[in-house]
Amino acid sequence: MPQYMIIMGLYTVLTAYILYLVFTIVLRSKNVWEQIMSIIVIVPFAMRLLFIK
Amino acid sequence: MTNGSKTGWTVIGASAVISLALTVNYAQMWRDDIIVPGPGVTQVKWLSDYNPSLKGTLGDTRVYVLEGKEPGGTFLVLGGTHCDETAGFAAALVVVEHATVQKGRVIVIPQTNNTGWTNNYPQEAHPQFVTIPQKANGEGRVFRFGSRTGNSGELWPDPEVFIQFPHKQKYSGEEIRNPNRAYPGRPAGTFQENVAYGIQLLHRAEHVDMQIDLHEGQPEYPFVNAVSSHKRAADVGSGAVLEMQMADLNIGMETSPDSFRGLSNLEMGDMFPHLYAFTSETMNPAQGKIRGITDEYLTVDGVDAFYDKAAKLGYLFAPWPEGGSPLKLRVGRNIQLLQALTTSLAESKGIEIGWGRIPTYRDLMANGVGHYLASVPEGTERPGIRALPGFWRYLSQSWAR
């Protein structure tokens, strides 16, 4: 199923890029609450990266 | 390292641990349930024995044959077509693990829509697992609580409109994953059409005389506590309704409309002129839209204050029992219906299928469902993951090649 693999591959790259952006912001941030709240963004995207295909 | 980046790394680490734990938890749904073949089971097969293209996919499922000593007719029981309709699966399980057959054959597929057991229906807050109690302290057998449709990972993407084969009836896109719109099936069709084609090949190989597909519906749905027959099987169905009344159970009966294509009873009945095909529905509050707290107790105990109120206000189509609609009641109705259908088939068509040991509705109401399930031998582990869903399967198979 090449179409499926190509699109899911692109989704995976996009998810990885979003996670990279969030990580960058989290590491630069000086606001502890902003950093802690990022968990609710990271977890769904990380799970998408791990197994939701 | 600044304080900010220390907190940042801690947050990222915590997120990774949470994600991993949730992933491991979710992946438990990819493992098959333990089913213990009872004394009546003479053969355990796979659907891929009939349709080899299902081998190695999550569409493959176990087929249990209960053959009597005397020759007779063949009865196919389909459970778990919609995997959030627990009573259909549980009734098929009671037959596999407890029942025996004297005359003819009963073929049971408890998890017809196998891929549907690997995920939940989105946004329903359904539990992942359900415990059917066997002991007074609530301990019992644990089974998955799956989805109405198949896992979207197996047949992504859903189209905007699903066009049913071969009648070209249009359904909403997600119905492409609904096994009960995929009949009669075809080999080069969608994933579910291939599974349905496996059932069609089973029919051809085993010469099935009668088939029932055990479903459940939401209590506010007009067609619950009812059986739907192929129009050719209306006389057998009507006889079964009378048999049910003999057991003090009221059940509605209608013939499946020709304009509602893709259903197991309609399509298989049309395809096989000797087959008497049925679909049944019991009343499951865990599926209803006005239900309250949704947990594993709702589908097992069937107690819901909102449905009590809806029943008092006259909003439900079938009588809502005092104390709710527990699993034992719904499984009891299904098991009694199986016996009513075999009796009616013998009386009206002369095709005999004789049960040996099988509980009645009253037995199930007195003892509960767990009483009729086998005890899992100590040390028995749940089977591992035999096929990953969609993307991961394609990827692992590509690596294997």
Largest interface: which pair? A-B, 23 and 26 residues
Total DSSP E strands of chain B: 13
> Low-confidence spans of chain B: pLDDT under 50, at least 5 residues?
none
When the domains of chain A are counted, the total is: 1
Averaging pLDDT over every residue of chain A, what do you get?
87
Oligomer: heterodimer
Helix/strand/pairing category of chain A:
mainly alpha
Q: Kindly, what is the distance between the CA atoms of the first and last residues of chain A, rounded to a whole number of angstroms?
A: 14 Å
In DSSP terms (H or I, runs of 4 or more residues), the helix count of chain A works out at 3
SSE string of chain A: HHH
Please identify the structural class of chain B as seen in this structure: alpha/beta
Radius of gyration of chain A: 13 Å
How much strand of chain A? under 5%
Please describe the biggest sheet of chain A, giving its number of strands, its sense, and whether it closes into a barrel. none
Shape of chain B: globular
Low-confidence segments of chain A: none
> How many helix segments of chain B?
10
Describe this structure in words.
The complex is a heterodimer of chains A (53) and B (401). Chain A is an all-alpha fold and 53 residues long. Chain A has one domain (3-51). Chain A is built from three helices and no strands. In chain A, α1 (2-28) packs antiparallel against α3. Chain A starts with a helix and ends with a helix. Chain B has 401 residues and is α/β, with parallel strands linked by helices. Chain B has helices spanning 3-27, 86-98, 191-206, 234-246, 264-271, 296-301, 305-312, 327-349, 361-367, 390-400, and strands spanning 43-46, 62-67, 70-78, 101-109, 129-133, 140-144, 161-163, 170-172, 210-217, 226-229, 252-255, 276-283, 354-355. The mean pLDDT of chain B is 93. Chains A and B meet through α1, α2 and α3 of A and α1 and α10 of B.
